[in-house]
Amino acid sequence: MNWTEAQRYCREHHTDLASVRNETEKKKIRSLLNFYSYYYTAWIGLSKSRSWSDKSNSSFSYWKAGQPDNAGQREYCTAVSFSNDTHVWVSEGKTWAEAQSFCREYYTDLASVRSRTELQQILRITNGSAVWIGLYRNRLWSDQSNSTFTYWRPEVQFAPSEPDNGVYTYEQYGNQHCTAVHYLGYWTDEDCLSSFPFICYSGELLSFGLYRQINTYNTW
User: Fold this and answer.
1) What is the Cα–Cα distance from 67 to 61, expressed in whole angstroms?
2) Which domains does the chain have, with CATH numbers?
3) pTM score, two decimals?
4) CB atoms within 10 A of CB 157
5) Out of 2, 17, 48, 220, which could bridge 53 as a Cys pair, Cβ 3.0 to 4.6 Å?
6) Residue 198 pLDDT greater than 90, yes or no
7) Distances in Å between the alpha carbon of 97 and those of 50, 64, 196?
8) What are the angstrom distances between the C-alpha of 189 and each of 52, 90, 128, 136, 149?
9) Neighbours of 152 (CB within 10 A)
10) Each residue of 98-126: pLDDT tens digit?
11) What is the pLDDT of residues 112-168, one digit of tens each?
12) Residues paired with residue 149 on neighbouring β-strands, in sequence order
């Protein structure tokens, strides 16, 4: 149904189309959409990017990158979408901090690797390229995950086991605090100012987007 029909339905059978006024309410909607398929979109009560159907005065927003764009000057109604992707490979090289900021702005965070299964998922999309993950100082995950899974590179010829904090690397001693995944999945600690592609995690992605009023999306 279109946005107006969805609004009418909610007012007749409930109270109104949902307002999303804070992070907690965003997460509640995300949990509802998670019951559905790989990709799902649903109307919320925001129209013209600023007016809530229930007259809420909330200024909270969570626009998808590039939104609101009002394409063709005909997109006035807002829907939320949830993507159940797990990992996104960004091939542009960035420092660890830059990669973290990028992932938090456009996805959820730098990826945590909590199991051998998740490590294999990353290897499938990186084709052996070295990439940043969210582990900092060998024990702190960017998204506050408490996982203890690790896959550090063992000692090999002419190279010590990892993490080594740059003990045997020229001008790197004590400066390797960020973690990269390399070929075969082994982890190494690296200088955080080094430039690598990186892996973002998008499993919690719930974002706003503008749509034409005649578009058909189900309500929850």
Assistant:
1) 11
2) 3-84 (3.10.100.10), 87-201 (3.10.100.10)
3) 0.55
4) 4
5) 17
6) yes
7) 32, 21, 11
8) 48, 20, 17, 9, 15
9) 14
10) 999 999 888 889 999 999 989 998 998 88
11) 999 998 999 899 888 778 999 999 987 899 988 888 999 999 988 877 888 887 666
12) none
What CA–CA distance (Å, rounded) separates 54 from 11?
A: 10
Mean pLDDT over each residue of the chain, to the nearest integer: 81
Q: Are 42 and 9 in contact (CB under 8 A)?
A: no
Main-chain dihedrals φ then ψ at residue 211, nearest 5 degrees: -140, 160
> What span, in angstroms and rounded, lies between the C-alpha atoms of 46 and 56?
10
What tokens does 15 get? 């109270």
The DSSP result for 88-137, as a single string, is EEEEEEE-HHHHHHHHHHHSSEEPP--SHHHHHHHHHHHTT--EEEEEET
